[in-house]
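Notebook entry, structure prediction.
Reason for the run: the old model in the group folder had no record of what sequence produced it. Starting over properly, with the input documented here first.
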Amino acid sequence: MSAWEYLGEIVLACLLTVLGFLIVGQNDLQARLCSLRGDLMIIVGIALGISATVWVGFFALLASEFGGWLRKRNETSPYAVALASPIFADLLGFLVLLFAGCSASSLLVRSTVIVLIYDLINVVTMIRNVIGLIALWETFEQSRRSS
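New structure, fully documented this time:
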């Protein structure tokens, strides 16, 4: 992913946060965030575990013949970065929920919502990246069968 795509995820998270505050309202969103804080921490923690597992699995994949094919095509670094970024988003989401998830400060509530939406966007992006990796694997298998 390019820097513009990462920036686009942040802009999308900000826009969705503004939309959420316009639809639900600051006080209601803050109350819901406080009541769901524990559940959200569990969900973000699970996402963190899944993201880390996918990233480690990618490195295990690099030891295979398919991994060698990816290295020849210079696809390993972009995928390593793309699959690592959700780990940092999940970790950030977890820490924000832990330390500021039920704050009386409107700035902290807005920041928490932005980070959680950004985290969700990163999970979706990670799934898209895994699908892209599977498409490359299919190309690899087809090229291997034809030779």
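Summary: DSSP finds five helices and no strands in the chain.
The old model has been moved to the deprecated folder.
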